[in-house]
Amino acid sequence: MLSSAGNRVLTFTFQFSPSLKFSAKTHKEFRPRSHNSSIMNSAFRSSPREAQVNDARFGGTITLEEWQGWGCVSPVPPMVTEVIQDLKLLENNIDAHMVFGGNGGKLQGDFKIQEDKKHRAKYQALGDSEKKFQFFSARQIACRLLGSRGYLCQKCWLPMEDCMCSNIKPCSLWHGIRFWLYMHPKDFLRQNNTGKLLWQLFGVQAATLCLYGISEDEKIMWNAFKDAGKAKVWCLYPNQNIVPRTVQDAFSCQSSADLECTLSSTTRDRPLNFVLIDGTWSNSAAMFRRLKERAKLVWGEEDLPCISLAAGASAMHKLRPQPSWDRTCTAAAAIGVLEELQLLPVCSSHGLDKQAKAVEDALVVLLEALTARRLRMGRSITRKVRHTRNIC
Ligand SMILES: [Zn+2]
């Protein structure tokens, strides 16, 4: 947990239990979730499966249609294509098939042993650290993609037999807001990820996926930030160096004239941009650092405007009691932003409360789908769960 007493910590605790009790602590701040978890690893693991890399539909690589089908907005990153081609080449050269297991992105068996050697050698050979980092991201994404192909629904990232898409009701987000899901590769195509709900609901232009370390994605995001200007970019992150600002602080401390100005210049082309860091708490520090470094390049100062959710009366307490998650989930952060903006008189007419409710409903749908899957697979939802990272 974030221990600094001065920070408001947004923490939701959902437990698997017969009574489906729900609790929400009152002092809250959004922060990416912790990494101590692993209900995912036990609850939603599937049997090892061979990658469908030779599927004729994909021609041994990845098409734009498939790439964007998973929620991405960028062109297919050449580095991801290269990794996939290298994997395929290796499969042709050695007598072992590519087999994935666990949560979809983990190679297994003999192929894994061979591939480990190969990718480590490639990594070492890359000169600069940025290239190494990009390769690291691209490889993880390529593996998750190959391990999920033909197995997960592209839209909801659940196994096809548990697809929940028909229960999601799309909704329009007020055009003055754009969410960015800055997602760690390890969270890409995770069944329990909640960031994906945002673009399922609002569309990829209103809630956009940006994969950490994928330069094509990061470029799109930063171009949008440059166009919008620094005053319209906010990262939901507890910035430990300064007193955290809430949505109220950030937007109501301005004089009404300024605020009118900020919001009246908020148009479809120049929305308020909110970055939600979609990764574990341990990964998020590096993700935030990368955002700050880029901010320095773009705006000449490292300070990236951050906000925290006040959220005592967050939407979440109204959520119907549901099984299990702990800490914050990414979609809950979006709910918090929408609800807190709704409280500002200048924002009250944009229907943000209804949009927050739509996210809430989608979260419930996801939880029900995950619970149904767990039950179908013969896993109790009443079992004492030590690690509660079920949804993130
Ligand atoms: Zn689906």
Automatic annotation (TrEMBL):
Lineage top rank: taxon: Eukaryota
The keyword tRNA processing belongs to this UniProt entry's keyword annotation: yes
Catalysed reaction, written as an equation: a uridine in tRNA + S-adenosyl-L-methionine = a 3-[(3S)-3-amino-3-carboxypropyl]uridine in tRNA + S-methyl-5'-thioadenosine + H(+)
EC primary class: transferase
Keyword tRNA processing in record: yes
GO molecular function: tRNA-uridine aminocarboxypropyltransferase activity
SMART domains: DTW
GO biological process annotation, one example: tRNA processing
Spans traversing the lipid bilayer: none
EC number: 2.5.1.25
The entry's keywords: S-adenosyl-L-methionine, Transferase, tRNA processing
Pfam family, one: DTW
InterPro entries: DTW (IPR005636), DTWD2/TAPT (IPR039262)
Domain DTW span(s) in chain numbering: 149-379
Protein name (database record): tRNA-uridine aminocarboxypropyltransferase
Species name: Durio zibethinus
Primary gene name: LOC111283097
